[in-house]
């Protein structure tokens, strides 16, 4: 990812699709206690931290991301909040033990089985993981739907469930991310693209055009593909 990519993403409120209702649903399915210790793995600029705090009103959120500017943006949003700890770090090597690990749209960097096996020791007894993963929702997906994921081997819900089981976890519930969740990500991005277009150099212009194509591709194939949010627990 080059500097132009991060220039586009620098001011976005979130780094992937999602909405408050997703967090509320996942924490309910996971039976998270009011005092739950939660890890937001690959937190980006902190788009889900507020919802996680509301889901555990007596709890604590430790948010981790490998990209320091995202962590700084989240610090600006939650500065002085004693229930939030922000760290620059590797989500594959979590430090601490948690009642819930929340990972929105980033498990694919590690792979489902690798992530879940690696996080087992970071979970308290009875703890759970909630993660969203690219998914095909059509039995006959178009090439356009597959191309949206840029070569990533996107799978259907059955295959995602198989990988969860192979990692030694059980699925407590699944939820397809809504169009609202996607537009919550893409509409601020469209506004950012419009603001950056004037005077953009060749490198930035290419990034902006790629983002526009991605948005158009998702809207064209939203019925065929998207994210599946799964709540899982070790067995």
UniProtKB/TrEMBL annotation:
Record has Lyase as a keyword: no
Listed InterPro entries: Methyltransf_25, SAM-dependent_MTases_sf
GO biological process: methylation
Limits of the Methyltransferase domain: 38-127
Keyword Transferase included in the entry's annotation: yes
Pfam families recorded: Methyltransf_25
GO MF, one annotated term: methyltransferase activity
Keywords (A to Z) from UniProt: Methyltransferase, Transferase
SUPFAM superfamilies noted in UniProt: S-adenosyl-L-methionine-dependent methyltransferases
Protein name in the entry: Methyltransferase domain-containing protein
Natural source organism: Rhodophyticola porphyridii
């Amino acid at each position: 990812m080059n500097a132009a990519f991060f220039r586009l993403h620098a001011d976005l409120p979130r780094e992937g699709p999602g909405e408050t209702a997703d967090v509320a649903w996942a924490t309910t399915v996971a039976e998270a206690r009011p005092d739950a210790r939660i890890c937001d793995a690959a937190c980006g600029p902190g788009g889900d931290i507020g919802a996680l705090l509301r889901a555990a009103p007596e709890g604590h959120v430790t948010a981790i991301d490998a990209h320091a500017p995202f962590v700084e943006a989240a610090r600006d949003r939650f500065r002085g909040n004693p229930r939030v700890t922000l760290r620059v770090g590797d989500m594959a090597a979590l430090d601490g033990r948690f009642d819930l690990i929340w990972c929105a749209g980033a498990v694919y960097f590690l792979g489902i089985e690798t992530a879940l096996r690696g996080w087992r020791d970071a979970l308290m007894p009875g703890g759970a993981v909630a993660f969203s993963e690219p998914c095909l929702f059509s039995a006959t997906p178009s090439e356009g739907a597959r191309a949206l994921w840029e070569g990533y081997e996107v799978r259907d819900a059955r295959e995602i469930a198989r990988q969860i089981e192979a990692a030694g976890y059980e699925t407590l519930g699944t939820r397809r991310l809504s169009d609202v969740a996607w537009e919550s990500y893409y509409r601020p991005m469209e506004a950012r693209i419009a603001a950056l277009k004037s005077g953009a150099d060749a490198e930035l212009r290419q990034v902006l055009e790629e983002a526009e194509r991605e948005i158009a591709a998702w809207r064209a194939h939203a019925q065929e593909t998207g994210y599946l949010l799964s709540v899982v627990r070790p067995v």
